[in-house]
Structures are given as structure tokens and as C-alpha cells.
Amino acid sequence: xxxxxxxxxxxxEGITEFLPVSSTGHLTIAEKLLGQxxxxxxxxxxTAVIQIGAIAAxxxxxxxxxxxxxTGWVRGVFMPALRTTQDYKFGWAVILGSIPIAVIGLxxxxxxxxxxxxxxxxxxxxxxxxxxxxxxDKYATTRKREDQTTWRDTVIIGFVQCIALIPGVSRSGxxxxxxxxxxxxxxxxxxxxxxxxxPALVAAGALEAVTKASDISxxxxxxxxxxxxxxxxxxxxxxxxxxxxxxxxxxxxxxxVYRIVVGVLLIVLLxxxxxxxx
Length: 278
Description:
Layout lengths: L2 H14 L6 H11 L7 H9 L1 H11 L1 H16 L7 H22 L1 H5 L5 H21 L11 H11 L9 H11 L4 H26 L1 H6 L3 H26 L5 H19 L7
Helix pairs in contact: 1-2, 1-13, 3-11, 4-11, 4-13, 5-6, 6-9, 6-11, 8-10, 8-14, 9-10, 10-11
């Protein structure tokens, strides 16, 4: 992969990772249009590894909250008297909410990296999950704040997050929708999506980097992978800042319409044979 291609894919990853539009779906489409073999193990690994850049941006952006939560959780583990604090409870909530996608992701790793990479799945998921997002945005109560989060909330959101293993659904789209249905306001639901995404994406990216290192070396190449990861970090940081400001004042209608348009356009391209599905 050339450096220019890597930069383009890094920008796409950075923009789409936290927006509810499916970063994997967009990367799969872009990789196909750039002439990459989307079923190639090196390309699959590249797609997962560069997410580390975006998730690192989330860690940096939320660093004060993360330090506070980890500190509260650790203190609660060793000091029973502090186990009533919200930070301790929230720490456990994030841990428990991260378990479902870890289990499901490992159990169905082969299917996720092969069968589900078809652009038909991407197109159908983009359109199909838009209906869920619309329902969540329209009918959810959106009254709960982040400090009212319980482990039941994060476990339910965590299970819904597993659906995002299908490219096109969108991890943030799935978790934000679930958060809205659990009654959280839009900003709280979005921030919960960030917190639950950090363990999942770091683990997935690290696993691919370690287990597919040789594939990346002989295929995409580490220089391109590193460049794309750095670019995704920079762009994702800006994307996170914009998204939190946007959802504080707007609904998710813009993203829903965009998803449907992209999904329909992709179906047309696939049905006319303009691009192949794999």
C-alpha cells in the first residue's frame, strides 16, 4: 500500500470511528475502491490495527475522566469503604460491559474476517441499522445522565455492541442507540460509547498487530500501517470534539440520512456490477 492510500484510509478511519456511520464499513468500501483485496488477511489486520490510532485519540480526549475512574475503581478494590462511589461502580460497569464483545468477537473471529467482509453485508447493515437509530432517536426518553449508569446498562449496551461486528452496523451507532433506549441523553450515550469502545478496540487492534504481524509485513506493509494509524489519531481527536458538541444540540438525523444514502448507492454499484462484493 502506498503512503497516499494510507493517509486517505487513516483520514476515513479517524472521521468515521466515533460517528455512527460504521468505520469498518467505510474502510471496506474505500479499500475496495483503492484496489485492495478486502479478504486479504493483511488488509483485514490493517483495518483493525489503524483503529488503535482513533481509540488512542479517545483515551487522550477523555484522559482526566479515565484517570479518575481507574483511580476510583482501584481504590474501591482495596478499600471496601469506597465501593459506594460512582467511579468505582462505573469502573465495574465498563469492565462488565466490555466482556460480551470480547467473547463473541473471539468465537466468530473467522466469520467476521471473511464472510462478513462482503460489501452486500455493509450495504444492508448501513440501511437496516438506520431504522434502529431512527427509533432510538425519536422514541427514547433521553433523561438519564452519565453518573446514573449501572452495570445493567453497560452489559445491555455491551451485548448490542456485538451486533457491530457486522461491518456497516457501526459500533458507535449500536452502542449509542442502545444507550438512548436505556434512557440516557445523547451526550451521555455518546460518551458511554467511547468508554465501552476503548477496551474493545484496543484489544482487537493489539491482537491483530501481534497475530498478523507477518501478514502486514508481507502485504500492506508496516510503514503504511503506521502512517494510517497516526493520521487516524489526529483526525479522530478532532472528530470526537466535534461530535460531542454536535449531539448536545442536534438529533442523529444527519447520520441516519447519510447512512441510507451510502447504503443505497452501494447497492446500486454492486447490483450493476460496477464493483465486486469481495
